[in-house]
Amino acid sequence: MNIAASGNDMLDDAALKALRQDLAAAFRLCHRFGWSESVGNHFSAAVSANGRKFLLNPRWQHFATVKASDLLMLDADDPDVMNGPNAPDPSAWTVHGTLHRMLPEARVILHCHSPYAVALSCLKDPTLLPLDNNTARFYGRIGYDLSFGGIADAAEEGERLAEMIRGKAVLVMGNHGVSVAGETVADAFEDLYFFEKAAQTMVLALSTGKPLAVLSDEIAQGTSDGWIPYRGMAEKHFAYLKSCLDREDPSYRD
């Protein structure tokens, strides 16, 4: 990612432009998949090595309209941004600002209320069981936060969520939704995509009322590990999805 060794060093201009376009594409694609919700929810991406400088969508702008140039450049160490005329959504600042400050390795953070992930999060036990390739993909990679307290607007809640997702790729937020962290926009979007499919499988299997054929821990771990060599799928898939946007409405790149 063209980031030098110093924690304060920023992406170069070309890398920043590409990151802005990728993140804008993720918003558009999220809406096309039916995962957006009114003008809420938030995606962010770190632009400095220490994660403290990051991109975030503007307050209450619909995902279907987000362009690369719309994304706010914020500093997680500058709370005065909330006093400005272009202040981000308070819950976005609380959560994404804290996560990027505490977890510099979480380069991209995607949070949305995709239907099956939300349904899973509303179960008394929202554990995603390893039932097939897609559900086992996340074996050992999910954190669970079951302390829902309404809209996140307190610093301690952001800190709790950061600890819950530390070392994981996905955070199931009980009675709420899902957040995904990844090294690139493509990586994070791919996990968001597959997690929604995995949650769908789990919810549909539970809806039958029949006993579930849960994979053994050994098979589940082996399946999860088996996905590692396929990581390149994310870039190919995301490139294809962007090519669809480019054909139909490339304004996300502006």
UniProtKB/TrEMBL annotation:
Coiled-coil spans in chain: none
GO molecular function: actin filament binding
Domain of life: Bacteria
Domain Class II aldolase/adducin N-terminal: 21-203
InterPro entries reported for this sequence: Aldolase-II_Adducin_sf, Aldolase_II/adducin_N, Aldolase_II/adducin_N_sf
GO cellular component: cytoskeleton
SUPFAM superfamilies, sorted: AraD/HMP-PK domain-like
PANTHER family: ADDUCIN, CLASS II ALDOLASE_ADDUCIN N-TERMINAL DOMAIN-CONTAINING PROTEIN
Family: Belongs to the aldolase class II family.
Protein name listed in UniProt: Class II aldolase/adducin N-terminal domain-containing protein
Organism listed in the record: Rhizobium rosettiformans W3
